[in-house]
User: Fold this.
Amino acid sequence: MARDEAALEAAHGLVRQLIAEKLKYLVPMTILFMASYIGLTVLAGFARDLVGTRMIGSVNLGFFLIAMNYLLSWILAIAYGFVAAGKFDVLAASAATQASRAEAKR
Amino acid sequence: MSPTLGIFVVILLITLAITYWAAKRTSTTADFYAADSRLTPAQNGFALAGDWCSAAAFLGFTGLTALYGMDGAFYALGPLVAFCTVLFLIAEPMRNTGKYTLGDIIRSRMQTRASLLAAIAGTVVVNFAYLMPQMAGAGVLVRLLTGISYDWAVVFVGVSMIVYVAFGGMLATTWVQIVKAVLMLSAGAIIMAMILAQVHFDPLALFADAEQKYSAKYLLPGNYLKNPFDQISLGLGYTLGLAGLPHVMTRFYTVPDAKAARRSVVWVMFLAGSFFAGTTLFGLAAADFVGRDAIRAADKGGNLALPLLAQYLGGGKGTLGGDLMLGFVAAVAVATILAVVSALTLSTSGAIAHDFYVNWVKHGEVEGTREVWIARVTAVVIGVLAIVLGILAQGVNVAVLVILAICVAASANFPVLILSLFWRRFNTGGVVGGMAVGLVSSVALAMIGPAMRGADALWPLVNPTIVSLPLGFLGAVLGTLIWGRDMKNEERFDAFLLQVHTGITSK
Assistant:
């Protein structure tokens, strides 16, 4: 029994490490997209003249920022895919291995 | 036969053939609710796009942009950004933890009957609030497009969705969504190519024409959402509400694992996101080419802007090209509604048959084949109820329900879901508290707001999310504290976290 517990404890430890790793990436990424998007709605609500500043031809700052938000969402999606595959999946896989070892010896 | 009807009959026959094929492959509960979790990320990504783009997205975003300029573009952007929340926080934990429903997650975390009941309430309220306006919208749309009466249009849509769901379950629903997504994206691509050809491949000309025709104010925010807080509330509702919409979230159960769930979100973000971005240009083009007066004359809400634009691009009214394009877009719009109402019916039947009957009433002691049978019957009952409600909703202002659906999802389901996944001390009291406060505050504020009472509103915001969402979280936290420590639940949390992050269940 003692050895299963050790494997299980190792699995939980790896999960804690995984959560810490996720927080390291996801907190800034979440702040980034929330600030860009909610920030844009705040500007649209309270700084309508600023949003109307002309940027390229008749396209104003508001439409430009909307376009940037589309781009940001897509970039973040791709970035998340890479981070998850490179960092999270490795830790999740070792946690899963430890956990199934604990189960097997039960 | 008009081109609309002709094209639509073809789509209908294809979906019925799919249902026949799917029905033969649907025998277990896993088949019925989750297509046996065997879809690929790309398939699920297309199905998610078909699921998430309601008629409000397909027709409404273009119409809003055409009539009100930038506010329409805000409506279109939010639904894409919302998938960032889903991708980062929800999709993978959802796949790892649950089986068929949102209720599954709450149940495996809390293991109490009260929390399961609260989760069921959240699903059923959100789904019906979403389903009713879709049915009413279907009635209006099908009548406008084909000329059959409102009541018959609702019955027709209702019967089709019952057939898809009751016979073909998740597999048929998924393929109806995929077919719809492919049609919608093709329609979008064709329209986009034709618009670009019109303006000699200079999309900026669309903005310049609109400015010249309707003044610079048209391109500013605030033409539709007058109250600044409504802009923010809409944004919050979208970014956090999607994660609380059961009919979209249950799509993650149809793929084999968390990695596939993740990839399907990336797919939908590019598929649906490019369509949403397209609607802003479609709206400007409709305002430029068709004209706002003509759009308003056809439908006050602007919902016919896209069909009219397609008709114009095809060669105009009365030409073969114009009729074909109009028919194509109109038929896709109906297919769009069918795909969405089917998903809502399936997800509601999961909450009633799987969560309520099997797990709550029968404590999980129901044999597999019997559970499938119950789920099918439930789908029929829900479909009939949706038809009745849809017919009763004729002429009633259903706009408030659309707001309610997303608002309750953001204010009740989202806090409960996110705290269940990430907070050790969160307990049954928190689930009930968050669900109750989020639900009641959303409903109450929407009812006394301008969407329901017009000029007599007792409360200024159309969309109450900016207030009800913090209240929902507050209810969840207070409920947790009042309930007191649930030590067994807290001890189980390590095992639960292991499951959330790896998909492995341990004792």
